[in-house]
Amino acid sequence: MTPKKIFICILLGICTYGCKDKKRAYLIDEITPPLGDSVVSMTFTGDLLFEQGLYDSLDDYDFGTYFDQIKPYLKGDIVIGNQEVPIGGEELGVSGVAFTFNAPKKVADQLPEIGFDIMSVATNHSYDMGYQGVFNTLKHLHDNGIATFGLYAQKEDKDQIYVIEKHGIRIALLAYTYDTNEWIEPEHDYVVKTFLNEQRVLDDEKREMLREDVEKAKEQADVVIAAMHWGNEFTYTLNQAQLETADYLNELGVDLIIGNHPHNIQTMEELINETNAHRTIVFYSLGNFVSAAAMVDRASIEFANMYEVGAILNLDIVKDRDSGEITIQHMVITPIINHFEHGYTNFALIPFSDYSEELASQHYQREFSEQFNREWIAAQLHDLFDGKITLAM
Question: Does domain 36-391 have CATH number 3.90.1150.10?
Answer without folding.
Answer: no
